[in-house]
Amino acid sequence: THTTDIHIKFKMWIAKNHIVLFLLFVLQADGQKQISIPYIEALPNIPNSWKIIDFEAKAEGLYEWLYINKTSRGVTSFFNVTFESPWYNGTVVSLPSYIGQTQVCSVAPGESLAVSGTAYGASLLARKQLQHVHSWTRLHQNQMPNFSFVKIYASEDGVIWNNPPGKLPPQIPTFWYSLINHIFVLSTLKSNNLDPKHELLYKSVLSWVKADKALNGNYNHTGFDFSSMKAIDNGLWTESDAAGGVAWLALAALDAGIGTDSEKLSFKTLAENSLNFLQSQQNSPLYECVLPWGVLAGAKWNYKYGKTYNITKFLEWSLSDGKNNQYRKGWGMINAQWGGLDSTGLVGSITDGGGYAFIGNGIWAAAALAPVIRYEPQLARIIAKWLYNLVSSTRFFYGDQPEVTGKQSNPKDKWDYNNNIAYEGVRKCDYNRTYSKCVHGSQFGPFATGDWCESVDCDNITWNCHNAGPCYAGSNRVLYSGGALGALAAVFSTTNDSHILQLDTVVTDVFAEEENSVFGYFNPKSSDAWVEAKTHYCKNREYYNIIDYTTNMVLRHNVGCNTLVSVFVEANSVTLIRLQQI
To answer: Is the CA virtual torsion 52, 57, 59, 62 positive or negative?
Structure first.
């Protein structure tokens, strides 16, 4: 893309019914000399399967079904259980990882990926909607549970696990199962102001400071045992991208302003040790899902402290073809057609059965990488292009979408009768590991499925629950990852142009300062366009200034929160504007 010297202009276009529409002609993010990453660049500008469904409505339906309309479910999907822990005593909303896995949750709280991950998604959706004075959140926010119960996953020393400490099933002591739940739990508490003094964050980061010293800043291990203060190595793989999650944790503590002066220095050392480790790697350390949070931490560190970590390299590792991964070969970002449809931008295995993407990995990566645009605007277009593809392809995880009609494993799921719960995965075809082939051929896709059952129509198959005997009929529809849908819905909004999305680069960066809100507009088309922006940012102030993010010039003073703004976006480019609260 080219760089053009554009004079900044604005003018009032129309005033009607107290809603004012302004035209803003701003310098494109391409003026920052956008960086190209070949594998991401190879994604289609507009996928041949392009379609955006209302993920916000699906997320609303999911959280209303789980938390509010408790009498209309038919079959109970969750249980309220009483639980005591070092950080929380009381009632816990226990959610199953897979819908139908109800007996597990009637005994003890479900895994944090389901419980805290769903609370995380609901919190981010509410965070977006409260900023926009959204009627659904205003109507239901007082009926949502108090998400303080996510603290049950923290040990006394503040380390957060996938299962409540000391309870069955036993902990999975690998890095990613712990660190992704640190992000879920701490972000949920921050979004809802449930730990205003950041006590859990404080204890947690102190524990990781000690762990980093024990590891000597070397994360080439499978996990860490906090009881023995020694690394865990299973001899099969390492999860070296854990350093990215630790860096995110350290930055969260610094953003929160907690700790004594000496402790703050130790938090900075923790961030630098972990980011230095990532920088020193020759091949991608990506294992499951933590590395994108390292991209965010590195970008924020560069922005705030003037460092020069190679964020382009970190991003390229996060969304690659997986060929150069240190251990998990073939794990990365999908750029392929399945059943003749572009199934691009999804995240998972590129090699398992020809391709196997997972709903959670895409959502979690979107939540981590959208804020990078604000800190590294030269990566705005390439990140936006990937998000554009991801948002379109994510609809294949939902059973009511015509592209997966007849190509899914639980078509008549009796729990998810509104099709608001995502399938765990989408495959290239109905590949069955037992037979090592696509049962109905390689073009029978995209195929919505999961790890529990790999056949077409699994609705009448009984499965066994952990320590609980036979369950009801199982399901490949999941909360452990699909419950976070609100995070994806929070990141993007549609505009009056069906091909241009608005990206919120702050909503998932919960420890950032909200007054620095930056919105991006990606135009994938070959022609320039004007787009109406939905930047009604009314959470804390009634008025704000609109600023061109690339030049820091004020485009409009004292704009009311009911203002519509029309923004010019060049072809194949991103425009960034900043809202400054007054």
So the answer is: negative
The enclosing H or E element of 55 equals helix 55-63
pLDDT value at position 532? 85
Q: What is the pLDDT of residue 23?
A: 46
Helix (H, G, I), strand (E, B), or coil: what is residue 522? strand
C-beta contacts of 508-511 below 8 A and 24+ residues apart: 508/124, 508/187, 508/366, 508/367, 508/368, 508/370, 508/371, 509/296, 509/300, 509/371, 509/374, 510/124, 510/127, 510/187, 510/190, 510/191, 511/190, 511/251, 511/252, 511/255, 511/256
Query: Rg of the Cα trace of the chain?
Result: 23
3-state secondary structure (DSSP) of residue 30: helix
Per-residue model confidence (pLDDT) at position 98:
86
Give Cβ neighbours of residue 49 (< 8 Å, ≥ 6 apart). 341, 342, 343, 392, 393, 403
Tokens of 390: 């991801």
Which tokens hold the place of 190? 């921050």
d(CA 421, CA 132): 25
Q: Report the alpha-carbon angle 199-203-206, nearest 5.
A: 140
261-267-269 Cα angle (round to 5): 105
Q: What is the pLDDT of residue 274?
A: 98
Checking DSSP bridges between strand 19-25 and strand 564-569, what pairing results, if any? parallel
What distance in Å separates the CA atoms of residue 569 and residue 574, rounded to the nearest whole number?
6
Q: Report helix, strand or coil for 340.
A: coil
Helix (H) or strand (E) holding 250: helix 242-256
DSSP assigned state of 478: B
SS3 state of residue 29: helix
**Residue type present at position 335:** N
- Please report the DSSP string for 264-290 in residue order: HHHHHHHHHHHHHHHHH-SSB---SS-
Q: Which residue's entry shows tokens 């408790």?
A: 70
Nearest to 304 by CA among 513, 52, 72: 513
**Cα 499 from chain centroid (whole Å):** 22
In the DSSP assignment, the letter for residue 160 is B
Give yes or no for a contact between 370 and 380, defined as CB atoms under 8 angstroms apart. no
Residue 258, helix vs strand vs coil: coil
Q: Along the chain (582 residues), what's the average pLDDT of each consecutive run of 10 residues?
A: 29 30 47 88 97 96 81 52 88 84 62 95 90 67 86 96 77 91 98 96 98 98 96 96 98 97 98 98 97 98 96 98 96 98 98 97 98 97 98 98 95 86 96 90 96 78 49 77 97 93 94 80 96 66 80 82 80 91 76
3-state DSSP assignment of residue 476: coil
Q: What is the 3-state secondary structure (H, E, C) of 357-368?
A: EEHHHHHHHHHH
Tokens representing residue 540 in the block: 């804390």
Nearest Cα residue to 87 out of 116, 126, 127: 116
Q: Quick one: pLDDT at residue 15?
A: 29
Question: Which two tokens mark 440?
Answer: 């109905």
